[in-house]
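QA checklist item 7 of 12: single-chain prediction sanity check.
[x] sequence parsed
[x] length recorded as 154
[x] structure emitted
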Amino acid sequence: MSDDEAARVRALAEILREYDLDAVRVRVGETEYELVARDPAPAGTVVMAAGAAPAAAVGPAATENGAVNGALAGANVKRVTAPVVGVFYGAPSPGAEPFVTVGDRVVPGQALCILEAMKLMNEITSEYAGVITRVIPENGQLVSLGDDLFWIEP
């Protein structure tokens, strides 16, 4: 990151704190800067994503007891989690059918979604055989490392 880019990020972080914003997004030429304040992190912590990324929201994370958006995972639920921070895409291209939906039976190695990280498309595959019981993030949503993406029951 150049000194000029670092200065932009610091200025955006200051605006984020000064106006108590949850997020700020700015496009400078072909580069888009998005800073998102995270509630569970200590005050002043900011996450930055640079690049030409689509609009995205912060993804839901599972709590220690397995709750996502109020739902609890059963004892036999296998979780597929995000191996990287990125934008979740449930289909191979806009307008295409999703890789999987709730109720679909999957096998190990089957493609479940794509996570876009730093303009790289990472295909996420299942490690488990079973039935998809939850698809947690919305299409185009930003997910963090370790966030639940799918719940699979044998």
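[x] summary fact logged: The CA atoms of residues 91 and 99 lie 5 Å apart.
[ ] second reviewer sign-off
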